[in-house]
Amino acid sequence: MFGNFIYFIIALLIYTTYQPPAQPEVPFFHALLMLLTTTAAFAALARLLFNRLEKSFDEGDIARVEDHFNSLLTRMSILAIGAFAFVIYIINLGVYLQNIRLFRAFPTLEAVFFLILFICYLSIVWASAYDLYERLNRSGTSRREYVRSNITFSIPVLLPWFFLSVMLDIITALPFQAPKDFLMSTEGQIAYFLVFLFIIAIIGPWLIQRFWGCRSLESGYARFRIEHMCTKAGIKYRDILLWPLFGGKMITAGVMGLVSRFRYIMVTPGLLRHLNPIELDAVIAHEIGHVKQKHLLFYLFFFVGYLVIAFSTLDLIIWSIIYLNASFGWFGAPGEGGAMVPILFSVAMIVIFLLYFRFVFGYFMRNFERQADIFVYQLMDSAHPLITTFKKISAGSGQSPDQPNWHHFSITERIDYLRKCETSRRWINHHNRKIRISIAVYAAVMLLIGAGGYQLHAGGTGEMISTNLFERLVLQQIGKDPENAELHLMLADIYQGTGEYGKSIRTYEKAISLAPDNARALNNLAWLHATAEEDRYFRPQKALELARQAADISRRSYILDTLAESYYINGKYDQAVEAGKEALALATEDRDYYRRQLEKFERAAQSGN
């Protein structure tokens, strides 16, 4: 089940790292036909493969089917990610959605649309797998309930992103510049995310239990036993809930909530039905162990740790791609191999995510589960009831007790360790010491990575490296195509950004000589002359001449803003106001900036008159 969390997060990474082209490459109806064909082919393949595996069940090869069912489910889920990536990167469906004004104003809506599409692909897998799942497990769950349970169990992993994204959309839509400027800074992004993550971590359990359809466990002997164990351990909680996971047939329990006001202890009807009272005590003792050992808080820190790694490696990945291209030309010249860059970036981020959660997060999850297992000895004399519970879980699930996964040791390994603790309690101290050392090493490594990432982003090192790599790439391409005005324009922009105004002016002039009607080259050189702080580069009349030429070619808002600024520095305030008004009227982004510019021109016009 926890694998579904990984699939959803990977889908989100694929979407968020995608950069759509400016214009559609194929007509909309062709793209729609490709989408429908992809979906139909995926559905047909899923049904074919699960039907073929089900025939092995009919032939009596049950052991083989049990071994291959989960493997096929995983492979088809990964293929669903592939189909989703195909829709994103090849069909470029997002380009057409950008033409819808509501999606442009609230980007979260577009993301939700694509995530719903991904849910549809996974639902096809689950619906195709249902018949065989039911024959293997005899759960009595309907197909609809099986698919719905998979969806509702997995969706909460996206809730933090969803609320974070919605809030960013709202802040962006508000007519206040200060919050936007703060969020554009490295410190602002870190602070906003940490505060929001903390709020979600506190109230998230309340949202999740409602999303899962949990209800309060009615008074009775089972609730009394659970309450007694919590009182014995000194654990406070909001409520004890009945968890209807997969129709309530699964034998499992859980706990969530960092603070007692929003802490919930959850048990499935299947667990209450199959366990005897002492086994129920052992399971609750295990869940209490998660709380007492502060595992839920550590999980939050580990999630932040992934973000630290992603934040720190973000630019490194981009620079690596640029460096490889500059050195070897693997991805083509600018404009030719550009589509490869976002794909490679997405692949790199997904690989980092998988490695981190498989080997770092998975390591701690497995060992935290073992630590919760041995916490039973804090509340009970023996772990034997927990051992018999594990055996019942193995028998009920139909899976081999020797099968491990990324977030749990196998049932056999867990039982073996508990038996070692039964023989000698020193194994309890041994494992607790292992956890303490592991957390200390992890914290030290994350501090080093975080400090390095902050230096790259906020310390200026990253900007310097990035600029040098871009300059190298552009110079390489100019060597291959010296008559390409766009390449000279890109190089001039780099020089202007680094304050090398002499080089920038000469390179802009070269671009203009190659393409006299290039409005952006004319505009950028005009802006440099109009705003340069050094007297030798500040040339008002030249700026106005260039800005007029650019405006005659294109009436874009940023070009008209340069024209208005050029009128302003030449004392032509009325003309500056007229150009500023037109720039504001045409602007679809950064309207606050254009409004402030216009106010500046109007004040000058009023004082001048």
Q: How many DSSP-defined strands?
A: 4
* Beta-strand residue fraction: under 5%
Question: What is the terminal-to-terminal distance?
Answer: 73 Å
- Order of strands, widest sheet: 1-2-4-3
Largest sheet: 4 strands, mixed
Mean of residue pLDDT values: 86
Stretches with pLDDT under 50, minimum 5 residues: 332-338
Shape: elongated
Helical run tally = 27
Task: Please summarize what this structure is.
The protein is an all-alpha fold.
Describe this structure in words.
The chain has 609 residues and is mainly α. Among the domains are: 293-481, no CATH class; 482-608, Serine Threonine Protein Phosphatase 5, Tetratricopeptide repeat, CATH 1.25.40. Helices cover 76% and strands 2% of the residues. It contains 27 helices and four strands. The chain has a four-stranded mixed beta sheet with strand order 1-2-4-3, with helices on both faces. Helix 2 runs antiparallel to helix 3, helix 13 (277-292) packs across helix 15 and helix 17 (384-397) packs antiparallel against helix 18 (411-423). It is elongated and about 90 Å long. It starts with a helix and ends with a helix. Residues 332-338 have low confidence and may be disordered.
Q: What topology emerges from the helices and strands here?
A:
Layout: H1 2-16, H2 28-58, H3 62-90, H4 93-97, H5 101-105, H6 107-137, H7 143-154, H8 159-173, H9 177-184, H10 186-211, E1 215-216, H11 221-233, E2 239-242, E3 253-256, E4 264-267, H12 269-274, H13 277-292, H14 295-328, H15 340-374, H16 376-379, H17 384-397, H18 411-423, H19 426-458, H20 461-480, H21 485-497, H22 501-514, H23 519-531, H24 540-553, H25 557-569, H26 573-586, H27 591-608
Helix pairs in contact: 1-3, 1-6, 1-15, 2-3, 2-6, 3-6, 6-7, 9-10, 11-13, 13-15, 13-17, 14-15, 14-19, 14-20, 15-19, 17-18, 20-21, 21-22, 22-23, 23-24, 23-25, 24-25, 25-26, 25-27, 26-27
